[in-house]
Amino acid sequence: MWLFLACTGDQPKDQIDTPADSGPVADTDSGEDSGGDRGDSGDDTGGDTAEPVVFDTTVDVIVVGTGPAGAAATVTAMDAGATVIVFEREEEAGMGMRLAGLVFGAGTRWQAEDGVEDSPEAAIAEWPEITGANASQGVQDFVQNSAANLEWLAAKGAEVEGPMEDLDAGSVARLHQMGWEDDPWPTFTEGYEPELRLGVEVTEPVMADGVVVGVRWRDTVTGEEGATGAAAVVVATGGFLRNRDRVNAAVPALADRELLYETNPSSNGGGLPFLDLAGAGSLRPEDIGMYVHALQDPGEAEGEALVAFMPDGMVLVDKDGNRFIDEEWSKSFDLFDRLPSGEVYGITSGPNAENLTFMRPAYNWVVLDEPEMLTVPDIEDLGSTDIFVEEDPSTLATAVGLDPDTFVATLDAYNTAAYTGTADAFGREPEAGEAVDGPPFVAVRLTPGLAKAFGGVATDASGHVLTPTGEEIPGLFAAGEVTGMVLGGGGGDGFSGSVNACYWSGRVSGGNAAARALGE
Ligand SMILES: Cc1cc2nc3c(=O)[nH]c(=O)nc-3n(C[C@H](O)[C@H](O)[C@H](O)COP(=O)(O)OP(=O)(O)OC[C@H]3O[C@@H](n4cnc5c(N)ncnc54)[C@H](O)[C@@H]3O)c2cc1C
Fold it and tell me: What fold, for 1-100+178-287+454-520?
């Protein structure tokens, strides 16, 4: 184990708290990039840090963030014997753990119990079909371990159930349902009791000669600032989609679009300034997962999504009143190439319109036992300007601002396919019950909702954070959505149930951070 000695100018702090089994306090060696005791560097103030730094304490591993990735990193590092401090900017731990209900797994016992034949090899072979990209080493590691990781989660108190079919998971059902009966953070960390610093935001790395040796932090309530030392830091701070500057820089085509957020409010790239200061590179930050199934919540701040649960018998039309896609596509993240310019409307009618419901607001799964479901009249009562109800298609088109003739022709062509059981222009074969032949006719103006970051900070498949030229930054690891879910890069259009990859990557990074700290 090694420790970093930090000083305040001419007033050395000779009594830094240390882990119980630590040896003598030492300062860093400029040449070393692995754990173990080090020699003198002469620079004990942090390579990128002008001011001297005093650590309040020093541990083996610091974990930043208490979502799925941070939780998994914490317990894995502690299982290896490391001392751990966890920083969480919010007042509560584990908010992200409460959100995810669908988890990807290939070759699981739950699939077998449901008669689904599957294997990691089959999922890896299908990966290009699922995401549009070949399976990187990190993807292969994740998929190979996805079933065992679900078992690990179940052993830690998660309730895992059989899989559901989904577009983004390949030819067989791989999306399992997962939940926590009780508050997941205490359930998951029972018996570990890491030091948890809630309401404390990690702001900057403390570096010595290019090695990360600790973090600076700020208490979000009191404003108190300080620094804590560690042999390794795991950044597990989640996605960045609520940071529009980052999103616009990653995908300039989105800069002019109205977008909604289908993400946790804390997904604003809180760890990225830290990683930037440490000199981290990025890997395909433009791989952003978006859905087109949301409208602005009139009761919430700008950008908040009401997620529409689209009924059977709903067509999507563009600003000209033409269909542009097989509507099944709206369940997929794969959007950029297929999203038409201008506005998109979902159209349904008759009894199907009664099944059009909205979840409010998406992220409030955190605080609600059951998400609040709203109906079309509820949305109208809230004063939404995104919903239109009329007795006939032509009047609806006029109300929405679509060309009535084009719109009516679009519905006629679709309904003909539904009544005759033939394939429509997109190869879909709608059933008679899916006809959009009202009344009433309902149009919802749908806005792209930013859902997940499938690109992020550059890492290797072991969780080491890399510079833009691919070198490891000693002492720095990352995990979870901040890495784009999959260590070493996933790529492509993303995949549903990626939170299993967040847990998995937390285990990998937490384990390797502990190994570094313990000199293994
Ligand atoms: C409503 C909803 C439903 C979802 N459903 C699914 C689903 O069914 N399946 C699925 O796979 N995914 C789902 N997701 C996405 C999934 O929740 C995220 O991908 C996942 O939580 C990411 O995990 P993470 O640990 O990487 O980050 P997060 O869970 O975002 O956790 C990061 C934590 O880091 C903290 N943090 C950030 N910056 C700092 C800082 N500087 N200092 C200290 N702390 C910091 C944040 O406060 C946060 O608690 C859903 C998301 C939402 C909003």
Answer: FAD/NAD(P)-binding domain (3.50.50)
Ligand 1 atom 4: residue of nearest CA: 100
Range with the largest mean pLDDT of 180-184, 203-207, 259-263, 449-453? 203-207
Q: What are phi and psi of 351, to 5 degrees?
A: -60, -30
266 lines ligand 1 (CB under 6 A): yes
Asked if 171 and 126 count as a contact pair (C-beta separation under 8 A), the reply is: yes
Mean pLDDT of 398-414: 97
User: 222 in helix, strand or coil?
Assistant: coil
Q: For residue 263, which atom of ligand 1 is closest to its CA?
A: 53
Q: Is 144 in the pocket of ligand 1 (CB under 6 A)?
A: no
Q: Give the position, in ligand 1's atom list, of the atom nearest the Cα of 201.
A: 42
Closest-CA residue, ligand 1 atom 5, reads 100
Atom of ligand 1 nearest to the CA of 264: 53
Q: Whose CA is nearest to atom 7 of ligand 1?
A: 100
Does residue 240 line the site of ligand 1, with CB under 6 A? no
Of 216, 191, 229, nearest to 60 by C-alpha is 229
Rounded CA separation 450/507 (Å): 27
Write down the residue that tokens 């919540």 correspond to: 297
Nearest residue (CA) to ligand 1, atom 13: 100
What class has domain 294-450?
alpha beta
Length of the chain: 520
Ligand 1 within 6 A of 227 CB?
Answer: no
* Cα 316 to Cα 328: distance, rounded to the nearest angstrom: 10
Residue 278 and residue 465 in contact, taking contact as beta carbons nearer than 8 Å: yes
For 306, residues 6+ apart whose C-beta sits below 8 A from its C-beta are 294, 295, 296, 297, 358, 359, 360, 361, 362, 374, 379
The predicted pLDDT at position 51 comes to 67
Domain range list for the chain? 1-100+178-287+454-520, 294-450
The pLDDT, as a whole number, for residue 15 is 28
Condensed to tens digits (0 to 9), the pLDDT of residues 114-123 reads: 999 999 999 9
Tell whether ligand 1 has an atom less than 6 A from the beta carbon of residue 490.
Answer: no
- 17 pLDDT higher than 80: no
311: left (phi > 0), else alpha (psi -120 to 50), else beta? Answer: beta
Angle between helical axes of 499-517 and 137-155 (0-180°, round to 10): 90
Distance 209 CA to ligand 1 centre (A): 32
pLDDT at 493 (0 to 100): 84
